[in-house]
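Replying to the earlier thread about multi-chain prediction with a worked example.

Input:
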Amino acid sequence: MSPPLKYVNRLPKSVQAARLLWAIAYYLLFRPTPRWALHGWRRLILRLFGASVGQGCRIDPSCKIWAPWNLSMGDYCAIAANVDCYNVAPITLQTKVAISQRSFLCTASHDISSVLRPLIYSAIRVESHVWVAAEAMIHPGVTLHEGCVVGARAVVLRDVQPWSIVVGSPATVVGIRKVTDKDLLQVPKGEV
Amino acid sequence: MSPPLKYVNRLPKSVQAARLLWAIAYYLLFRPTPRWALHGWRRLILRLFGASVGQGCRIDPSCKIWAPWNLSMGDYCAIAANVDCYNVAPITLQTKVAISQRSFLCTASHDISSVLRPLIYSAIRVESHVWVAAEAMIHPGVTLHEGCVVGARAVVLRDVQPWSIVVGSPATVVGIRKVTDKDLLQVPKGEV
Amino acid sequence: MSPPLKYVNRLPKSVQAARLLWAIAYYLLFRPTPRWALHGWRRLILRLFGASVGQGCRIDPSCKIWAPWNLSMGDYCAIAANVDCYNVAPITLQTKVAISQRSFLCTASHDISSVLRPLIYSAIRVESHVWVAAEAMIHPGVTLHEGCVVGARAVVLRDVQPWSIVVGSPATVVGIRKVTDKDLLQVPKGEV
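Result:
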């Protein structure tokens, strides 16, 4: 076999070191906390590692976060049990976003135009009032626009328009979300 | 942000207390048991917490059950490893039902007509001789009629007709299940 | 209920014994090892249990392998975190294959033409330079031909042609993989 095929994707040493520190903090201070309490403590830990986390966010202790320094959350967001927040590139959640259990926000992929398959990545943005239902998957580079709903188990390859509903694999639009109490939406502009 | 947006879905105190007791029993008495034995013991624990469980049922210790008091199983049913039986509303399995590994029976959702996304739920019923293959997902309110087969990874949004086969996400009918030994089906009527 | 319906699928005693030994070795010697090191040690353990494992393979310690004696890997293959290699029948990976996190290689199923649903199984073959992306599922009997790409979360029911790209559930062809550096492919014929 030609030597290049032995190639293994490697992260810069600085990222490896930061990830090691984060792993230690995660397993000692974050993951062993009880699900129903210590929300503020978990927010604090994430902020110490560079995350921007708004008030009232609830992040389940079983949630996996690849790099807190690539995570930005507005107010009152929720990340549920066993979500995989694979943020090799930045992941941004605006306000009142819910990411349900076992969802997979995936910013990384491989360049398949080479037999070496080098790592590539692209940011994910989730705007305010979006709900990503259980076990959905969001591909690298996707933006979920305001108020849209990603159905359970949906696999989202492309941007989703505001207040639309997508389901399936790959996800397609199946409806428009009609909200009867939109007057409650008094979110200050420019949050996050 | 307007105060209602801070709203967090809360369960009644009585349900919270029951769930806490069940969590303790689950982690001490149910989950640490060996997969290949103590089937009767696990059935007993579930019955003590209000489940109706027929004879010969095999429930894997890694199976997650949200509320045993919302679970009803006929005879000779099997629930495999790491199934998530998320029964906020009742889940009923009739006779000789198999739920394969990592499947997700999901009775709960959110009402997306409100920006507050209040919790909603609806029961799931699985009739006799149904097989839900590995990593399938059943949505709230769905009935799987007698003898149908839900293919691995299928995502079922609507009722499935008797002895039909569905696959895909969302699941669609791909065939009819022809059984060559239906004479073996001598299940007493009215079970479960 | 007629007695046959009480039937439970059972493996031969010899397989049960081998699986018990493997489970002990797995939990004591394989699974507790660190992800970023001891690749050679994990290859050794697998070989001691009958696997054929080429040089440079990286097998994550959280990967589940049902039967090492039914696993054959060429050089420089990678099996990522929490992959379920459910090889009741043989699974063969040729050279430079990547199986990403939480993918499910499933060789077993049930014969649904009988109400007893006896276990059936069929081998999976993954040829050189294939990438199975995260959380994909490969059904029993499938061959993934050289250089193809199975998109994240795809559910593959049928063979995939060489250098093609499939996504979705069920998976369908969405493109041809064009590789710009195919000259690097100097894999000796007949490997694995």
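The two ends of chain B are 49 Å apart (CA to CA).

Feel free to reuse this layout for your own posts.
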